Amino acid sequence: MKAQEISVPVPWGNVKCQVFGDPTNKSAKPIISIHGFLDNSNSFKPLAPYICQNDNFYIIALDLPGHGFSSKLPNGIPYTPKLFLSSVRRVIRHFGINEFYFLCHSYGIHLSVLYSIVFKNEVKALISLDWIFSLPGYKIESYSDLWKSGIDGLIDIEDRETNNNDSAPAKTLTKDLAVSILMKYNNHLDLESAKILIDRALIVKDDGRLEFSRDIRVKQTVLMHDHYLDMAYLLPEMVKGIDVPWLMIHADPPAYGDRPAKITMDFLKKIEANSKTSIQYETFKGTHHFHMIQPKETAEIILKFIDKIKIKKTSKL
Q1: What is the spatial distance between Cα 21 and Cα 136, in angstroms, rounded to a whole number?
Q2: b vs e for 287-305, b when ≥16 Cβ sit within 10 Å of the residue's Cβ?
Q3: How many Å apart are CA 313 and CA 315, to the nearest integer?
């Protein structure tokens, strides 16, 4: 399915979006989609034709800052959940949408949950594709140590990048090589899904060489525990503040092992016990990226759930 490319201006550049389906159809319901860690909006490209096939829905899938074709942050500025969430907010305000569904994968689910408690009465349903949320199981013993590791970690990676740029040229990057690198470090993908992600993960430099578009600093900052401090103090509100229907589809077997899966499930049960949400749990035989590898089967589960919820369509598109 061909997507409409939209560029949303932000103070540091642009947040790039793909719009799948027909947003001019007044009966179509909007879906906001946020991808996972180091992925991009092409994560939802295989799903889009099935979700939007009857013109009942359209999808706005965005590249988070430092991912896909979206602008990187200036050097020295860390990527934080608050920054990512503000980018989502800017996109939603740009399109003038005030009621919508969230359809998100992995890290993007963190942001959809945070958005639903921060900007109340906008999100009408959460659709989550393999949420792994280990933060509730992490005991923070020293906030100052987390600050130190986060600050030094960012400075270290920027120094390494500067030194790499001053060293001898690296091996020439090709699309095939990029796909093989991605599959080496992400064993949840098959060849076709890796190619789809790579299509939005490379840029052509002025000299004609290919380069990965994502900001390497994202990997450093998001993998540091201090990145999640923005979320830590919102945990009590996450437990009590979700008040919309929620579809939770988990990969089977658990993509990152039993312990993170158990922490996530225990947290979801705590949310159910203390909030107004009702969670529908589904398991899907497949990897962490089952939605890309088996999009038709994934869409069938989603549509059965989402079709139950009716919202009015409001958008400037």
Answers
A1: 37
A2: bbbbbbbbbeebbebbbeb
A3: 7
Q: Sign of dihedral through CA atoms 64, 220, 72, 47?
A: negative
Main-chain dihedrals φ then ψ at residue 203, nearest 5 degrees: -130, 155
- What tens digit of pLDDT does each residue of 250-276 get? 999 999 999 999 999 999 999 999 999
Give the end-to-end CA distance of the chain in Å, rounded to a whole number: 19
| pTM of the predicted protein model | 0.94
Kindly state the DSSP code that residue 2 receives in the 8-state scheme.
-
Q: What pLDDT, in 10s, does the model give residues 168-203?
A: 556 799 999 999 999 999 999 999 999 999 999 999
Q: Are 35 and 44 in contact (CB under 8 A)?
A: yes
Long-range contacts of 145-150 (CB under 8 A, 24+ apart): 146/224, 146/225, 146/226, 146/229, 147/226, 149/224, 149/225, 149/226, 150/78, 150/221, 150/224, 150/225, 150/226, 150/227
- CB-based burial of residue 226 (10 Å sphere; 0-12 exposed, 13-18 middle, 19+ buried)? buried
What tokens appear for 201 in the block? 């993960």
